[in-house]
What does this fold into?
Amino acid sequence: SSGINAEYGVNKKLAQRLRELNFWKDEVQSQLQAVDKEIETLLKYKGSLENSLESTEHPQSVTTSCLTYRQGREAIDMVQDDVENNLLKEVEVIEGVRSVLVRTLEQTVEQIRRLRSAKYFLQKDVADKNAAISIDNSCHTLNNKDTDINLYEGVTQDLASSVMPADWSNYSDSNIKKAECEKQASVTLRSVISGVIEQTRNDLLTQCRHVDLALKKRVEECSNAKERLTGHLEKVEVEIENMEGNISKLKAAIEEKLAPLKVAHTRLAQRSQRPNIELTRDPAQYQLVNEVKLIESSISALESQLEASEASLKGLIRNQIDLKEDIRIKTKSLHIDKVLCQDLRATVDYSHY
It folds into this structure.
C-alpha cells in the first residue's frame, strides 16, 4: 500500500513536471517563432540597404564623368560656374550618403548576428525541453508490470551537473528575455533604416535637381551667347563684303585717274621741249599744271580713303577671326553640357532607391 502511494505521488510529481516543461517549451517556442520572423523581416531591410547602396554607384560615376567632361571647356568658358559647384556638392552628398548606408548596413549585419545567436540558444532550449518531455513521459507511463524495468546502481546519488529548479526556470526566462531584448533592438533599428533610406533619398534627389537646374540654365546662357555671336559675325561678314567692294571701287577710281594724269604729264613734258622764246608760260601751260595738281590731289584723297578702308578691313577680319573662335568655344561648351552631361544625367534614376 505504501509502495502504491509512493508510486502515485511520483506520478503526480511527474505529471506536474511535464506541465511545467510543456509550459516553458511553449513559451520558448513562441519566442523562437517571433525571433525567426524578426530575422526574416530584418533581412529584407538589409536587402533594401544593399539596394540603396548599389543605386548610388551609377549616379556617382555620372557625376565624376560630368566633372571630367567639363575639364574640356576652353578659354573664357573654363570657369568654376554654378554647375561646377553643384557637381562638386553632389560628389560630397553621394559620398556622405554611401558612408551612412555602409554604417547602417554594418549595424544591421551585427543585429542579425545577435538575433541568430539568441535563436541558437532558444532552439537548443526547445531541443533540451523536448528530450526531457520525452524522458519524463516515458517515466510517467512506467508501471510494475512493464518488462523493461530494472535495477541500476548509484541512481539515487546527486548528479554533479544537476541544477536547482529555480535556476532551471530562470534559464529559459533569461533566454526569452535576451531574445526579446534583441528583437526590440531590431525593431528600433528597422525604424532607423526606414528613416535613413528616406532621408538619404531626399538628399540625393534634391542635389540631383540642383545640378540639373544649374545645367539647364548654363545651356540656355551658352546657347543665347552663341546666337548673339553668330548674329554679330553675320553683320561683320556683311561689313567685310561691303568694305571689299568699297576698296575695289577706290582702286578702280584711282586707276581711272591715271590715264588723264598721264596725258597731262605727257603734254607738259612735250611742251617743255618748245624751243627758245616759244617756251612761254601761256594759259595752256597754267591750265595743264592746274589739271595735274587737281588730279594728283584727287588721287591722294582716294589713296587716303583706300588706306583707311584697308585698315578697317584688317580690323573687321581680326574681329571675324575672334568671333569664329568664340563661337567654336561656345559650340564645344554646348556639346559638353548639353550632349555629354545632360544626356548622361538623364540616365540617373532614384525611383528604385
The chain has a mean pLDDT of 88. The longest helix spans residues 165-271.
